[in-house]
Structure formats: structure tokens, C-alpha cells
Amino acid sequence: MSEPLLIDLSKAGRKAYCFPPLDLPRGFDQALPSLPESLSRQKSARLPEVAELDVVRHFTRLSNMVHGVDNGMYPLGSCTMKYNPKLSEHIAGMSEFTQIHPLQDVSTSQGCLSVMYNLIEDLSSITGMSWGTLQPCAGAHGEYTGLKMIRSYFVKNGQSQRTKVLIPISAHGTNPASAAVNGFDVVPIASDEQGMVDLEDLASKLDETTAALMLTNPNTLGLFEKHILKISAMVHASGALLYYDGANLNAIMGMATPGDMGFDVIHLNLHKTFSTPHGGGGPGSGPVMCNDTLRPFLPKPDIELTDSGYVYRWDDEDSIGKVSMFWGNFLVLLRAYVYILRMGSEGIRAAARHAVLNANYVAARLASTFPIPYGKRCMHEFVLSCATLKEQYGVSAQDVAKALIDEGYHPPTMYFPSLVGEALMIEPTESESLETLDRFVDTLLAIAERAKTDSESLRTAPHTTVVGRLDEVRAVKQPDLRY
Ligand SMILES: *Cc1c(COP(=O)(O)O)cnc(C)c1O
């Protein structure tokens, strides 16, 4: 059943609020300058008038229609939809943290500053980098920041002819977008038959106009770039820098560092790897960490620990400047810090091991029914293909994804990366139990069986949701957002 809008529930005179008595003198507003006639409202705004119970039931019903990690498995590859401990939520809701103002004198915000300072230190050791910034508010924003630092570095060193950024074709779409926004030319790099960077193609494209290679490792096929040390030597030998897309650090955190792999600058997605509920657009956090080469170019202000406590440092002529208001999404930073403290280095390693084990377990159980074209062993995620189902029974990856919704699962990422036809990219994360993983696999196997006998019901799925199969192309090409 569809849910009416609040305005449809409106009845004149109903209300769900009560204000405290006015404690200003009557007529106080007479003294205020009044708005010009042309700007003031001629009749009252049409706002919904509803009772408290109407509001509560409306939003509770809407919340029941939504799928989240808290009500079912969410194997959305490349997004790391892991469980976010309630402890982090509880602490991020404490008034000591929510009621603080970013412009308060630093002598009154030492606690918050220590959270940020310690978080930068922890992220530095997790990534093998020397320092970083917490300002960027999303992964893409971190990419923008890191690439801007690379640009400034080459301008400063008299090499502004370095205008090309090399990006493997399997990369996340934000990589080429961030490079283009920074004014770089994007040069695609091919993948070899194992799904790795094609070294010959890379060698042929590295030259004195190359600024950077942007790499995701493990890549979006869930595979570790075996030749990473060779790649980083090649890139540095050509005078270019190496950028690491660390949005999905789940597979390697505590086990290996981008620093040891030879990367110069990286971004992390705290909202994926380090415990912040996400989806639907934020809030996020995409810290940028870098080595000593790029450290002078980090955004300002930086935080420094002095004899008199934590202070902001603004000076640095090479800094690219500020990239967000104040210090980024502080409460996301706080959740990440709580997560790291609570897990400890052993816990973080254990999470990485379980993320990899869970992905390999699910992949191994599915592989004989759904081919996995790249890699027998994966890291935190893998990409299977529904191409045979499509050929034999006309059932596409999208049909399988929609059928999963009816069974209580969020669909995996679809049709990405484009190297795999009819792709479903699955990332179970470390959060799920063996029983949940088995139920998920059994459900997918049952859907594959159903393709043989009842493919029509798959092509028209989902059947249990408020709205059924949507025309996704039309929704994009002809959006009609009017009420
Ligand atoms: C999610 C993701 C990004 C982008 O992060 P946003 O916070 O959505 O901007 C970049 N790269 C990879 C590999 C990702 O998975």
C-alpha cells in the first residue's frame, strides 16, 4: 500500500507541537525592521496540519518500507555496507560533541581537537602515510583534494606540463570525474585477462606529461594488484605520482598499507570502512593521507600538539587551502575514532580477515551456478556474471537483483565494473554470520532454479514492494518530480 503525503493527511487546526509561553514583551517585533511588502507573504503557507500520532505513524510506516543494514543483509559491492556499532552512534549523539561550535576558542574544544589529532595519527599508521587532512566530506571530495595536491606539487616544481592522469578502465566512476574536475586529461589503462592493470599498456602511456596513476587496490573486481611494487616503480621512474583510491580498505586494513605499496597520496571513506551508516547521500568523510612529498600541500588548517595543547596551524604557503567548511563532518570522524579504539589493531585485522573470508565463502558456493570470470580467490568482494542465465532463460542481472528484494535482501551492485557482462558485484562484509551467508547463497541458487521454470516472475520482480518494477531509463530521462 502506498503512503499518502503529509499534506494529504492534513486537517485544518490539527497540530503536533506546543511552544512554551512567549517570554518577550508584547509588541517587541514592532521595533524590528519589517520586510518590504513585495517580499512578504500574502497568504499563509500551505503546510500540513497533522496531529502527533499522524506524524509518528507516517514516518514509522515510511521507515518500514526502507531496507537498511539494520533490517537485512546489504551485499552492495564497492559500498561496504557493514554493520555500524550502536556504541559509535551513542557517542556521536552525546551533547558534549553535538553542542560544540567550530568557532569556539580552542581552549574550550581540546577534547574534540584531540579526537581529530589522534584520528589522523591512527589513520596514518593504518595507511602507512605520514599525515593527512580530515576536511573532505566524501570519497569523491577526497579524490578532488588529493589530485589538487598533486597538481600544486607539479606546478610548484615547474612541471605543469604534467596534465594526464592514468586510470584503469575498471575504476570507480568518481576517479575520472575527479581528475577532469581538476583540469587533468583522463587516459584509460586497459586490464589484462586476469583483471589486473595491463603493464604494457601502462608503460606505453607513462611519459613526461603524466601527473599520476590512480589505482584502487584491491581493484573493483575484488582482486589484489599483484604487480603493485613494479607498477609503483614504473610510475615513479617516469616522474609521476601514485594515487590510491582507498574507499574500500576493508580487505587490507591492518594487513598491508598503501604506503608500503609505494603510494604517495590516498583517500579513505570513513563512511564505508570505519562505521558510519551511509547511503542516500551522506554525511560522509573522505580523509586524505599522504607521504612527506605531498604533506606541504595538504589543506589548512592543520592541527598541532604544542606545550599548551592542541592548536590550529594556518600558515603554509604551499597548501591548496580549505576544501570544506570548518573541519569536515566531525561526528563522522568521531564514529571512526570510536570504531578504531574499540576494535584495536587486532580487531581491525580480524575484520579484514573476516571480510575476505566471507567474500570467498560466498563466491565459492556460487561459482558453479554463476560464473566468476576474474579470479578464483578474491579480497573483500567479487563480481559474478548472469550472462548464462540471460542466454538460456532470458533472465538478466537486473532480474536477479530485483528478485532478491522480494526475499529480503538489498540487491548487489549491478552492471559494474563493465569488464564483466551481466555483472553482480557482491560484498558480504565481515558483519554477517555463516547462517546469514548460507541463507543468502541458498536464495540466489533458488532464483537460478526459478529461471528455468518461471522466468516470467523474475522478469517482473519485485512483487512485494510498494512500487513494482520501475522504468529506470525513463525515470532518468524524463523525471517528473512535481506533486
Ligand atoms: C564509494 C567509492 C568512491 C566514492 O566515494 P563517495 O563517498 O561516494 O564519494 C570512490 N571510489 C571507490 C572505489 C568507491 O567504492
UniProtKB/TrEMBL annotation:
<keyword id="KW-0560">Oxidoreductase</keyword>
<protein>
    <recommendedName>
        <fullName>glycine dehydrogenase (aminomethyl-transferring)</fullName>
        <ecNumber>1.4.4.2</ecNumber>
    </recommendedName>
</protein>
<dbReference type="InterPro" id="IPR049316">
    <property type="entry name" value="GDC-P_C"/>
</dbReference>
<feature type="domain" description="Glycine dehydrogenase C-terminal">
    <location>
        <begin position="351"/>
        <end position="452"/>
    </location>
</feature>
<comment type="function">
    <text>The glycine cleavage system catalyzes the degradation of glycine. The P protein binds the alpha-amino group of glycine through its pyridoxal phosphate cofactor; CO(2) is released and the remaining methylamine moiety is then transferred to the lipoamide cofactor of the H protein.</text>
</comment>
<dbReference type="InterPro" id="IPR015421">
    <property type="entry name" value="PyrdxlP-dep_Trfase_major"/>
</dbReference>
<dbReference type="Pfam" id="PF21478">
    <property type="entry name" value="GcvP2_C"/>
</dbReference>
<dbReference type="InterPro" id="IPR015424">
    <property type="entry name" value="PyrdxlP-dep_Trfase"/>
</dbReference>
<dbReference type="InterPro" id="IPR020581">
    <property type="entry name" value="GDC_P"/>
</dbReference>
<feature type="domain" description="Aminotransferase class V">
    <location>
        <begin position="170"/>
        <end position="279"/>
    </location>
</feature>
<dbReference type="GO" id="GO:0004375">
    <property type="term" value="F:glycine dehydrogenase (decarboxylating) activity"/>
</dbReference>
<dbReference type="InterPro" id="IPR000192">
    <property type="entry name" value="Aminotrans_V_dom"/>
</dbReference>
<keyword id="KW-0663">Pyridoxal phosphate</keyword>
<dbReference type="Pfam" id="PF00266">
    <property type="entry name" value="Aminotran_5"/>
</dbReference>
<dbReference type="InterPro" id="IPR015422">
    <property type="entry name" value="PyrdxlP-dep_Trfase_small"/>
</dbReference>
